Amino acid sequence: MPPKDYVKAGRATPRPRKNTKTAKPFPWPLVITVVALVIGFVWFLYHLSQKTPVEDAVTPAITAKKDELPPKPAAEPYQYIKELENKEIQVQVEELEAKGPFLMFCGTYRAIETAQQMKAKVAFAGYPSEVRRIEGKNGVFFRVTLGPYTSKRQAESDKSRLLRQKVADCRIANAT
Question: CATH number of the domain at 102-174, out of 1.10.150.20, 3.40.50.10780, 3.30.70.1070, 3.40.1500.20?
Answer without folding.
Answer: 3.30.70.1070
